[in-house]
Amino acid sequence: MSKAQTLLDKLWNAHEVLIREDGTSLLWVDRHLVHEGSHHAFAKLAAREGDMAAPDLTFAVVDHYAPTHGRAKIKDPQISRMIETLRGNVAVHGLKIFDLDDPTQGIVHVVGPEQGLTLPGLLINCGDSHTSTHGAFGTLAFGIGATEVAHVLATQTIWQRKPKAMRITVNGTLAAGVSAKDIALNWIAQLGTGGAQGHAIEYAGSAIEALSMEGRMTLCNLSIEGGARFGMIAPDETTFEYVKGRPYAPKGAHWEASLADWATLNTDHDAEFDRDVRFDAADIAPTVTWGTSPEQALPVTAIIPDPNHLDASKGKAAKAALDYMGLTAGQPLIGTPVDQVFIGSCTNGRIEDLRAAAAVLSGRSAKISGLVSPGSALVKAQAEQEGLDRIFTDAGLTWVASGCSMCVGMNGDLVESGKRCASSTNRNFRGRQGRGARTHLMSPAMVAAAAVNGTISDVRPLLQGRAL
Amino acid sequence: MAGWSTHKGTVITLPLANIDTDQLIPARFMSVPRSEGYGNYLLHDLRRAPDGTLDPDFSLNGNAKPSILLAGANFGSGSSREAAVYALVDAGFHAVIALSFGDIFSSNAVNNGLLPARVSDADWNALSGATGDAQINLEQGTITIGTTQVSFALEDSWRVKLINGWDDIDLTKQHTAQIAAYKTQRHQSAPWAWPAHVD
Known about the structure:
The complex is a heterodimer. Chain A is of the alpha/beta class. Chain A has two domains: 7-275, 2-Layer Sandwich (Aconitase, domain 3); 288-462, 2-Layer Sandwich (Aconitase, domain 3). Chain A is 34% helix and 17% strand. Chain A has helices at 7-15, 39-47, 77-93, 108-114, 146-155, 180-191, 206-209, 213-221, 237-243, 252-262, 312-325, 345-348, 351-361, 377-386, 388-395, 444-453, 459-463; strands at 16-19, 24-28, 31-34, 58-61, 96-98, 123-126, 140-143, 157-161, 164-171, 199-204, 230-232, 275-280, 287-289, 297-299, 340-343, 369-372, 398-399, 420-423, 438-441. Chain A has a five-stranded parallel β-sheet with strand order 5-4-3-6-7, sandwiched between helices. In chain A, helix 2 (39-47) packs across helix 5 (146-155) and helix 13 packs parallel to helix 16 (444-453). The mean pLDDT of chain A is 97. Chain B is of the alpha/beta class. Chain B has a single domain (6-166), classed as Aconitase, domain 4, CATH 3.20.19. Chain B has helices spanning 21-24, 44-47, 83-90, 103-110, 121-129, 156-164, 168-173, 176-189; strands at residues 6-9, 11-14, 68-71, 95-98, 115-118, 134-137, 142-145, 148-151. Chain B has a four-stranded antiparallel β-sheet with strand order 1-6-7-8, covered by helices on one side. In chain B, strands 2-3-4-5 form a four-stranded parallel β-sheet. In chain B, strand 4 (95-98), helix 4 (103-110) and strand 5 (115-118) form a beta-alpha-beta unit. Chain B starts with 5 loop residues before the first strand and ends in a 10-residue tail after the last helix. Chains A and B meet through strand 2, helix 2, helix 3, helix 5 and strand 8 of A and helix 4, helix 6, helix 7 and helix 8 of B.
């Protein structure tokens, strides 16, 4: 009998073209997603006068620089140039593009799954660290740099050493007001931002199985914030139901064949992991970051830690973080005044995220301003059909078009220096949302709660008596 | 990319943990073509006041022309932006020495001839206390500062790549037949893996 295999083993073996003597594998890439930021890689390919190996497996999306308003006439010439450069490369190589005016445009990690480009059993690369999002489908998906993007363009393959296997099991039931975002921030806070470095994470357990595809994508998306280039979840009925009928998904006989193949995409019972970690869903509270690293996160009911009470290395970082964030040790997180909110991004810009935020904001006013940017034009249309846009605008928030927007600020949606933003995004790094910006990461429902009170707040009391 | 096996230079210490790629190069500079050079954007917002003037107290802003960076744990975590490596390389760096690195940063570094050298806590402390000329030997896997010598950890395949300055696309082209055979086999065994035709 052959050795028991992990999901990682099965996906890796299925894509291995060859393995070199030094242990590096050459892997076949089923889907390659590119965006405006891929300009360095296209320039490298052009410098070699090279052709693309598989334009039919490469899809372009306008997202990082996509304006969220005033698209008809883009004011910033630098932003126009970035989008025009992508269009030029798409034209040269004959690629499919989800452009600004396309009714299916959106953030690359939202569009891929929506369009059925993301499927179980595939290997997906994109020049973006949040490519781990697609692992939610039982997909080997990982972010790559520009040199690697150029390599995939030229060869449709990638050299890669197999990572170690890590399993994060979460059993039990999440309480009301607690979401996949909180599962992620909780494990990153416990294990650290380098906690999963060198590993591919498989998420398992009853709390993971109970998540929707949207929740699974949020969880896999944030794997990189704990250091893992890969996050994945074995596909099941929830996955197949989501994929079925999407535009680029298999049809007819191919669909039947794919289901048979996908049924084998799970970790064998006796398979061993290099690292195995467990959490209980009942222990997870709505979680908020207080510092400048995703590991600097605590349950919202906690007090801001005293750097002098942490071990030396963490204490120094905590002191610098509190200084940058303008926070005082020993104060409760709840009640910290917030200047603005942002709901969106590849982490939490899907329909379920907007519904969760709207459930809190419905019939209430926001005390502070904020931006709501759906993850795609399709999510935007769906939300408008459900009347969610009215809930946000009636509360006083601004409803805009889809893109990476204020998560990374490349399109000009920035948080001003010294301002504090409650954000449904993925990185609270110094300057991430703009120079001097102070970011607190949390779930969309928690962002909505911050909007209602104008302070960091526990969403749970605001949900009492409301249908979820 | 030119290969190298030894490097002599000057070390500068940046004893901060979690220097992420957003700090190495803020996103607003990433639309610049590489030919214009990325060196001035390295750690831009940590080094410069909002008006652009250099902070004289920041270690990188001294007169020395450092080429080896001794940095804290989890260096280069975060975004996959290769521009973070361009900023270091264009500013004249050959190596970063740290307790640990972001996975994507490490691959990007090696793809641009920049050594991501992992060292232990004890060796990091020894290096940070040492004075004198610095030398890195890739073949031997050693870093020497003055009379202090330590070993660093690096995947063997990456060591070979840095020394030879290999270009992966050229290497992969040697396997064109194997790739074609794989593609044929995959198309037969998993035809569903190709995108369905969309009108």
